Structure prediction request, 139 residues.
Amino acid sequence: MSYPGRRLPFAVEVGKHGEPPPLNVSHLSEGRIVLIGGSRISGTYELRKEITFVDEGKRWENEDLYSKLVDLNSNGVPFQFQPREMGSPDMLMAWWQEIGKIKVSFKEIFWRSPDDWLLTTIEPPVIGTRGWAGPKPFG
Prediction:
């Protein structure tokens, strides 16, 4: 996790081994925000919820998606760390912070193993911190 312009160290909360994760934003899929959490039963999380959004245009310009992710964030819902998925909810939140559209922190959930997870608080970036000169185009 490399977020430019953020002060180190990040605030981290470690989940207890075997403790089920909180409901979190897993990914986006065809006009749906997919949330999962709770205990895993046969590899499937007991909690699963989907929130629809108008899936038109570029994700980072989608106002419906933006408002729904911001609402989830204001309710303390963390976003899964998805380093290989361009346009993932965690990357969108970080980019919206970078351009000043989101001025608050968000929590990111990261797995070290299937039963070990941690929550990291991602604060908005500050120009000049760790050499950050400002936002670059998304995508």
Q: What stands out?
A: The beta strands are 11-14, 24-29, 32-41, 44-52, 79-80, 106-113, 116-122. The mean pLDDT is 89.
